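Lab meeting, item 3. Inverse folding demo.
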């Protein structure tokens, strides 16, 4: 009996010791809060949850709490609100173009201040240069490409066949886009359009689509320092003229504005034969299209062109050294070739580094589904997305000007001259 009592006491001591050990380990775990945008193409939350879970299994000393924070605009607003309230996230995926706003608010820390080893410096240089254009300024790297995209052209091959067009030869120029678009418009017996030739979204992110048209006409919208815009340049005005004429003159797409959020549904329901949209929709279109479809680079006027787009990882300044180190470790893990390949296959977004396309998984996927390589191949024609100081205000000014031109309330020239004047006034202080 005495031995049993002693054994029970010993067992109790061991249990208490074990519990203290567990609590000690838990108390020393580094906890990270991450804001993540979910209102973009593809079923992201399950994949993000899985990646976070896999990371934590490999790194039990780090806990990552993913807070799904709405679309990109919502995420930026919530991050800035949290910053002003003294409780910013440790890291977040936010539009790459918010770099100047975040720097101006002293919100983020450059990765150059965090990487120390040669291996980490090599990692910092492993991403596609075109994607880094919106990640660097003033000689420093402020964010890391992750949920990145270019605009691509999705087209219904079955509709092309019905119109007598070659399903393997989508329009490569503006003239071909108009010519083929007219053949792809379908009307019922009452003359009502049941299928448009083309739809380009003009809500949500019209400045992004406009950047593509401008690049195709040999123009960019801003300087690299984010202090000047070129909205009234003749080639920029011509690009908006062309966009307006697609609906107003050529009749190959609806007049007025076209909704970003419902365009993918229009394409899947065969209400339009061609759509311009983010490559982030690729997996969803592949999964849901009931027809044969293709993906192509955007057409050219003077040259092919698209802005890059999408979100980058940022590390917020108001974090402890331990939290910054843990955030860096997580971001490095998330952007390794194998994870990048997994992410690209699961979502349709770009593989952000060339070696991701050398993994067996992505090699095999691209071989069986060549459309997955279009956005990557288009990077050679890509330019930085519009990004300036006071980004939110400038976006609204330009978006309003684009929509005014498309709805006919202003001429493209008048709309853009007004946008130039307002924006120049805002950027003067920089």
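The presenter then showed the designed sequence:
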């Amino acid at each position: 009996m005495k031995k049993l009592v002693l054994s029970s006491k010993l067992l109790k001591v061991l249990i208490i010791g074990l519990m203290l050990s567990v609590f000690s380990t838990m108390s020393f775990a580094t906890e990270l809060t991450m804001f993540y945008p979910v209102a973009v193409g593809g079923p992201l939350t399950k994949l993000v949850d899985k990646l976070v879970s896999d990371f934590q299994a490999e790194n039990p000393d780090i806990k990552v709490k993913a807070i799904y924070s709405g679309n990109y605009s919502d995420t930026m607003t919530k991050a800035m609100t949290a910053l002003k309230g003294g409780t910013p996230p440790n890291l977040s995926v936010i539009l790459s173009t918010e770099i100047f706003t975040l720097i101006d608010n002293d919100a983020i820390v450059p990765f150059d201040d965090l990487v120390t080893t040669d291996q980490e410096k090599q990692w910092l240089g492993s991403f596609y240069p075109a994607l880094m254009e919106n990640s660097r300024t003033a000689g420093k790297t402020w964010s890391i490409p992750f949920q990145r995209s270019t605009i691509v052209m999705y087209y219904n091959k079955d509709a092309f066949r019905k119109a007598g067009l070659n399903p393997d030869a989508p329009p490569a120029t503006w003239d071909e886009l108009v010519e083929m678009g007219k053949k792809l418009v379908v009307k019922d017996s009452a003359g009502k359009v049941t299928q448009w030739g083309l739809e380009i979204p003009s809500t949500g992110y019209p400045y992004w689509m406009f950047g593509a048209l401008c690049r195709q006409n040999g123009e960019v919208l801003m300087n690299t320092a984010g202090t000047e815009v070129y909205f009234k340049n003749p080639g920029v005005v011509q690009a908006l003229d062309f966009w307006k004429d697609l609906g107003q003159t050529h009749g190959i797409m609806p007049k007025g504005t076209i909704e970003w959020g419902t365009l993918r549904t229009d394409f899947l329901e065969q209400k339009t034969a061609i759509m311009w949209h983010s490559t982030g929709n690729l997996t969803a279109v592949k999964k849901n299209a009931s027809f044969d479809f293709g993906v192509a680079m955007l057409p050219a006027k003077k040259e092919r062109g698209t802005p890059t787009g999408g979100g980058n990882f940022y590390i917020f300044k108001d974090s402890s050294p331990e939290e910054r180190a843990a955030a860096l470790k997580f971001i490095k893990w998330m952007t390794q070739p194998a994870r990048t390949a997994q992410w690209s296959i699961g979502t349709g977004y770009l593989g952000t580094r060339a070696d991701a396309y050398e993994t067996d998984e992505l090699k095999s996927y691209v071989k069986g589904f060549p459309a997955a390589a279009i956005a990557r191949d288009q990077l050679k024609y890509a330019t930085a997305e519009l990004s300036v100081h006071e980004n939110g205000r400038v976006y609204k000014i330009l978006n309003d000007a684009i929509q005014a031109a498309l709805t006919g309330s202003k001429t493209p020239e008048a709309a853009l001259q007004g946008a130039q004047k307002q924006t120049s006034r805002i950027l003067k202080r920089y």
